[in-house]
Amino acid sequence: MAHPSQLGLQDAASPVMEELIHFHDHALMIVFLISTLVLYVIVAMVSIKLTNKYILDSQEIEIVWTILPAVILIMIALPSLRILYLMDEINDPHLTIKAMGHQWYWSYEYTDYEDLGFDSYMIPTQDLTPGQFRLLETDHRMVVPMESPVRILVSAEDVLHSWAVPALGVKMDAVPGRLNQTAFITSRPGVFYGQCSEICGANHSFMPIVVEAVPLEHFENWSSLMIEDA
Fold it and tell me: At what angle do helices 15-47 and 59-88 cross, to 10 degrees?
């Protein structure tokens, strides 16, 4: 998860997020090089009083500064389109979970099981135990098996919400009357935090998302206990 004074993105916990971080670094390097070149040209024009008459009207330079930006845009666009298609790929998910947004909590339904669903409320500050995070902990976590494709069906019951977990590279709008879907694969076990990312009313800041990735055996034990308790 994010920590104080962090400048970069959160550590990736899914293959898609790893790709997004690589693309971010790729685009940032291109922007850095362009900014350096422009700054050099500005400084040179201001500080140097001599003028090269051949640069004032040069077909070669005009060709270069027309083609070069187009090449740079292609270098940015192609990896971006690749990641966009990767984020939309949902191939044979092992588990499907329906996430429903409410004012102001999330409810989860494991559609592959007959009776497995629960509401997930934020734990109030006064009820937190040592080591828990304020405004991020929930009374019920969404538990998923690691290294397994998981499909998330996202909708809302009242107003617009958005189901987002940065470490997994997932962000999907929850729209009343509409069923959106996204997918992810957790590449390692852990607890990953997110929050509603759409202004949804007075308590918008108080509906966190907690995804816990565990080995498949532990997930099966957890699901069995949840069904028995229900």
Answer: 160
Instruction: Please tell me the distance from the alpha carbon of residue 184 to that of residue 175, in angstroms, as a whole number.
Output: 20
**pLDDT class of 18 with cuts at 50, 70, 90:** very high
- Domain of 208, CATH number, reads 2.60.40.420
Task: Report which of 28, 147, 16, 128 is spatially closest to residue 83, judged by C-alpha positions.
Answer: 16
* Statement to judge: residues 115 and 138 lie in one domain: yes
Residue 5 confidence (pLDDT) above 90: no
Q: What is the separation of C-alpha 118 from the centre of its chain, rounded to a whole number of angstroms?
A: 24
Distance from the first to the final alpha carbon of the chain: 31
- Cα four-point dihedral sign 26, 191, 126, 120: positive
| Residues sharing a CB contact under 8 Å with residue 52, sequence separation 6 or more, in sequence order | none
Q: How far apart are CA 83 and CA 107, in angstroms?
A: 29
Q: Are strands 117-120 and 161-165 parallel, antiparallel or unpaired?
A: unpaired
User: Which parts of 12-112 fold into alpha helices (H)?
Assistant: 15-47, 53-56, 59-88
Contact 210, 143 (CB under 8 A): no
Global pTM reads 0.86
Give Cα separations from 202 to 174, 198, 206, 209 (angstroms): 17, 12, 9, 17
Q: Is residue 131 located within the same domain as residue 29? A: no
